[in-house]
Amino acid sequence: MRAPLSWLREYVDLPAGETGRDVAAKLIAAGLEVETVERLGTGITGPLVVGQVLAIEELTGFKKPIRYCQVDVGDANGTGEPQNIVCGATNFAVGDKVVVILPGGVLPGDFRIGARKTYGRLSEGMICSASELGMSDDHDGIIVLPPEHEVGTDAIELLELVDEVLDIAVTPDRGYCLSMRGVAREAATAYGLPLRDPALLDVPVPNEHGHPVEIEDRRGCDRFTARTVTGVRPDARSPIWLQRRLQKAGMRPISLAVDITNYVMLELGQPLHAYDRSRVNGAIGVRRARPGEKLTTLDGTKRELHPEDLVITDDSGPIGLAGVMGGADTEIADAREATGTSEIVIEAAHFDPVSIARTARRHKLSSEASRRFERGVDPQATSAAAQRTVDLLVLLAGGTAEAGVTEIVSPSGPHTIRMRADHPDRVAGVAYGRETVARRLQDVGCDVYGTDELTVTVPSWRPDLTDPNDLAEEVMRLEGYEALPSTLPRLPSGRGLTERQRLRRRVGRALAGAGYVEAPNYPFVGDAAFDRLGLEPDDPRRRTVRLVNPLSDEEPALRTTLLPGLLAALRRNDGRGSHDLALFETGLVFRPTGCETAAVRLPVDRRPTDEELAALTAALPAQPRRAAVVLAGAREQAGWWGKGRPATWADAVEAARTVAREAGVELALEADRHAPWHPGRCAALYAGVDGERTLVGHAGELHPRVIKAMQLPARTCAMEIDLDLLERASSGAPQAPHVSTFPVATQDVALVVDASVPAAEVESALREGAGELLESLRLFDVFTGEQLGEGKKSLAYALRFRAPDRTLTAEEATAAREAAVAAAVGRTGAVLRGA
């Protein structure tokens, strides 16, 4: 919300010396977010005056139109003689009043004006456009003033060029501050001054003679006021003061009728709409859209309506999206048309905020009106806003207000909240006292009754005040957040990180130490991501939790796997030139079970009971914590030290082992077919959980179709593993290894097995047979060739033996090696190579 300081002073008698920065400091202390204070007109110095064009000579021979003008500026030039000015604009004629800056003047940007020869003529000044004066970004032509302004008048004062504008970022709970009325109320409270409420107007009582209105959906529209003004001059233009206030507030002047509705919206916070009565057929109605209905809105877009859209109708069908944008068929005719609008119907209504927000998002049509309705508009302001609009149309357009007044109101009582008088004291940790609490709530506009137990009636313009804590917050912000004591929370002794938190930190450190970079992602996903991953229609990962109010329609659900976000990050970085990538993420996924119950609303005035917390937990989906990695490009860089190595599926498997080691878990691997991995390069990861062999994740190379669909680098690999299952499989924190002081005995063994036998199975057999003396085992060579025979491979292992209490003899090491080989022969059918 942009609030001009000059406009704000109409409602609050601010001290004469207060600057925009002073007012901003007061509003910030009261809890508003004033982002900037823009000082308008600081770079302008005169003489800048009103001039009248006396003659125009068209200069030829140039690439663009050039005009040599004689302009009467009165006595502003000290001589009374006309000024000769060269101008390239063509939107004015002889007799028009324009804005002229004379030699010696300075325009914004330190643009100094002097007499100079250009296009073969001497130009003594400049005829100004709105953009050159810093009024707007309009470059269409120079400013043409209404004829009633006298020649030689100071244009700096006339155009209100010098001002300060407060740019306020209005949070969703302070929708009333999207109006000068709301900002003025906050300023009056901050300074302790009275407020001249612009909504306090004499409004005629409703009668049966107004324009007919029929409301079918009273829940979507609980209040509707209609007023009619006749005899409006179609050629009437918005006065300068009205245009300037709109421009300072960030809106573009359009036509008098539209400008007035926008002005009243900015002033009172109530969006309005004006209809050309000659284009409205029958009664104005409010209802939900029907299947198949369409509407062309004022922006020229033909929209297909949704059954949940709230629409304004007449006998011909929808004529507007309620609270969002009007329809083109009932638009106020432009004054330049042959038959302008002379009869105007004013609509001032109150619509359901949720309905308006969903309609605006559904149609991707955020407007000034929808921004206000979805944040909450004062329902009691509709009559005053309609009356203010009628008054301005009568005053500025020469219209006549019809006696008929239509007002439909759904019965509703004021919202009251019961609160202990010391509740703000207990929340803030400050002793405010009952008198201070009551006074501050009255400053907000509440009516307060009671002594120890307060009954607070909330004002109609504050729909965000619903609970005692909301009232406590109002007291705290108005008394000053700086008055709140700074106290550190007292933590119970003897508590630290949980085992789950420790595991998560160990996993993150281990993956970072292995060369991976953490890349957290938003937990949102859409069906398109599952399609690109190649998931089957009945894949459990497609069963998602959908958000009621998603940030993006393309990602309306919570993720069931970490891979879409990580792969998108990998693709994005690869597209920006980083081709050797290793990324990881740990986070929650959301897996609905179908057994979730309806969510309960927890109280805010006390601690929830254990039963209430259990009921809330039962409404949540399962949220296991996962760890995932993705790799592409080189895993080891090439250099003077030797050749590099590309990332392969084995690196993804090793990442899973790295994670499992931090939990003290030994993984078992099996070949598997599981999207989105390549069926021939996918490993299923198993661990013993609660005494049972349990699938905990997958690792390998992605399927080529997935790589193509997601535009990933060739041979991209990935791994995803369940940290919660690993924690359950863990026997506790991993123990540091015992460092023996005795030497190691190394034995190598090469075994020939069928190509279909996994190396992991051979390794498991060797470990089992070697016994307790085996310290480590490493596969250092895989060989295939004609000398082995078709369908055979050779696996070479290095076995390290060590005893904790003695030096092993050669016989002991050999016996352990032979036992390991025997176990491998028995389980896998291996043959000792060379035997």
Topology of helices and strands:
Blueprint: E1 2-4, H1 5-8, H2 20-29, E2 33-40, E3 48-59, E4 66-72, E5 83-87, E6 97-101, E7 106-107, E8 111-112, E9 115-118, E10 121-124, E11 126-127, E12 144-145, H3 155-158, E13 163-169, H4 180-191, E14 213-215, E15 221-230, H5 240-248, H6 256-268, E16 272-276, E17 284-288, E18 294-296, E19 302-304, E20 310-314, E21 317-321, E22 325-326, E23 344-351, H7 353-362, H8 368-375, H9 382-397, E24 400-409, E25 416-420, H10 423-428, H11 434-444, E26 447-449, E27 453-457, H12 468-479, H13 499-513, E28 517-518, E29 524-525, H14 527-532, E30 557-558, H15 563-575, E31 581-588, H16 610-618, E32 625-632, E33 634-636, E34 645-646, H17 649-662, E35 668-671, E36 677-689, E37 692-702, H18 704-709, E38 717-722, H19 723-729, E39 745-754, H20 759-770, E40 774-783, E41 792-801, H21 810-828, E42 831-832
Parallel strand pairs: 14-17, 28-31
Antiparallel strand pairs: 1-13, 2-13, 3-4, 3-6, 4-5, 6-11, 6-12, 7-8, 9-10, 15-23, 15-24, 16-23, 17-20, 18-19, 20-21, 21-22, 25-27, 26-27, 29-30, 31-32, 32-38, 33-34, 35-36, 36-37, 37-38, 39-41, 39-42, 40-41
